[in-house]
Amino acid sequence: MNPPLEPPPPPTANGCCGVGCLTLFVLLAFLAFAFVGGGLWALNHFRNTYSSTEPAAIPAPESPVASAPAPTPIAADDVQARWDAFERAGRRGEKASIALSAADINTLLANDRHTRGKVFVSIEDTTARVQASVPLKNVAFMKGRYLNGEATVQASPDGDPAKAQITNITLANQKVPDSVLDQRLFGWSPTRGMIQEWLDDQNIAVFKIESGQVIGQTRGN
Fold this sequence. Notes:
By secondary structure, this protein is α+β, with helices and mostly antiparallel strands. The chain has helices at 16-50, 73-92, 102-111, 191-201, and strands at 97-101, 119-124, 127-135, 146-154, 165-171, 174-175, 204-210, 213-218.
């Protein structure tokens, strides 16, 4: 007659439960390492590929008055006054329109401390070209680097601002997909989202580029 089978000993702290916890810990540690390491690799790759150690050469704004070699105070004040009136009308829900040449736009950019010396616009017929050089001194791991890039802008044939095309985007002379406008870079909001937010705040209904000018119209009540 076979002797009765003895029950298995109870699990100890170093049994299956301990091994499972250890395995889980190792897996979590590995995932954390992969996440941090991958993030640092991606940041370093972006830093070395798409940012520069020197700012790009941004042209000085031309005069809004063709005969003047540089913007005169009166001309600059006139452009700023027209733009301020257009913005006020948009915020109030009033109907307004404005036409700006590339020189006008660059004068406005030069008047703003956030864009002065960082952005330049040129227009040829129905296409605008935007050049930018943005210092990244307030971005972690990017001190001393610059985001230098450019893009072309074309208005929609029906003048709908939401359908404007921003293409041929380059960063540090490297072509990047247009979808970069929908991505968050350095914690900033997506560029396309910021543009749409501004259009909504200003009640912009029409955006056109015709005969070397940018034409805008507000919705109005």
